[in-house]
Amino acid sequence: MGVLERSQPTLSLIECLCWCLVLIGGAHSQLTHPTEVNALRNIKGSLTDPYRNLRNWNRGDPCTSEWTGVFCYYITPSDGYLHLRELSLLNMNISGSLSPQLGQLSHLEILDFMWNNVTGSIPKEIGRITTLKLLLLNGNQLTGSLPDEIGFLPNLDRIQIDQNKISGSIPTSFANLSNIKHFHMNNNSLSGQIPPQLSRLPKLVHLLLHNNNLSGYLPPELSEMPSLQILYIFTLVIP
Ligand SMILES: *[C@@H]1O[C@H](CO)[C@@H](O)[C@H](O)[C@H]1NC(C)=O
Ligand SMILES: *[C@@H]1O[C@H](CO)[C@@H](O)[C@H](O)[C@H]1NC(C)=O
Ligand SMILES: *[C@@H]1O[C@H](CO)[C@@H](O)[C@H](O)[C@H]1NC(C)=O
Ligand SMILES: *[C@@H]1O[C@H](CO)[C@@H](O)[C@H](O)[C@H]1NC(C)=O
Ligand SMILES: *[C@@H]1O[C@H](CO)[C@@H](O)[C@H](O)[C@H]1NC(C)=O
């Protein structure tokens, strides 16, 4: 008898759990995709934020509770979750490093960390965000080389990595950025030859490569580019 009596509350507990799951399932249309919420937590964990500019990043939902620097799409897509459109953390005295989890923000169009003190390298995982249009990382302390993967972003319009400490060569894969208009890479430690393949880029308007450590020849093809208006490559080291 005792066993039967105890089984009664167990059943209603299961019932209650089921209802809770149904309710959560029905309400998720108003929430940010869990993968992106987790990614944001991880991104914050890799940053140092002495002025606590990201202090509201533990309250409620990123998209619906207006987390600082987080901007989402207003429409709810077919998966029923909200997605980040923009992460803009410019000028916030932030240091620390960029988490590879940035690559999980799979619907992002704008990634902006301009004018902070971020160190470490640019995560290659950013190359997975195929929706990305603006990659704005200028005015930081970034080191390491440019990941080849950035060259696989079909919608990239603008890459600003100027005024960092980025080294290594300019990846040839950047010649795949068929929608790129602005390449701002001046004031780094980039070295090696400017890939002549960059002259394939049909929409390039600004190519800024001055104050680096580039060497070799100036590809003559660059003078034949259809859209190019400004080209700064001075201080090229001719070996
Ligand atoms: C950044 O640091 C400067 C100088 O310490 C301070 O005046 C400014 O208010 C800070 N800005 C933010 C957004 O934290
Ligand atoms: C970056 O760090 C340097 C040295 O620690 C400091 O002088 C500068 O104000 C910082 N800049 C920003 C934007 O946080
Ligand atoms: C991208 O660039 C690499 C290196 O130049 C090249 O091998 C590859 O075929 C390119 N991919 C596309 C899709 O253009
Ligand atoms: C860029 O580098 C040059 C040469 O090192 C330097 O004179 C200039 O101040 C730098 N510009 C900026 C905005 O940091
Ligand atoms: C430029 O390259 C030379 C030779 O590779 C190296 O010795 C030097 O440290 C580099 N300078 C910068 C600013 O990266």
UniProtKB/TrEMBL annotation:
Offer an example of a GO molecular function term for this protein: protein serine/threonine kinase activity
Q: Could you say which residues form the signal peptide? A: 1-29
Q: Where in the cell is it found?
A: Cell envelope
Q: Which UniProt keywords apply?
A: Leucine-rich repeat, Receptor, Repeat, Signal
InterPro entries from the entry? Leu-rich_rpt, LRR_dom_sf, LRR_N_plant-typ, PGIP
Q: Where is the Leucine-rich repeat-containing N-terminal plant-type domain?
A: 33-72
Its recorded reaction(s) are: L-seryl-[protein] + ATP = O-phospho-L-seryl-[protein] + ADP + H(+); L-threonyl-[protein] + ATP = O-phospho-L-threonyl-[protein] + ADP + H(+)
Tell me where it mainly resides. other
Q: Which SUPFAM superfamilies match?
A: L domain-like (SSF52058)
Against Pfam families, the record matches this protein to: LRR_1, LRR_8, LRRNT_2
What the entry lists under Gene3D superfamilies is as follows: Ribonuclease Inhibitor
Family per similarity comment: Belongs to the polygalacturonase-inhibiting protein family.
Q: What is this protein called?
A: Leucine-rich repeat-containing N-terminal plant-type domain-containing protein
Organism of derivation:
Fraxinus pennsylvanica
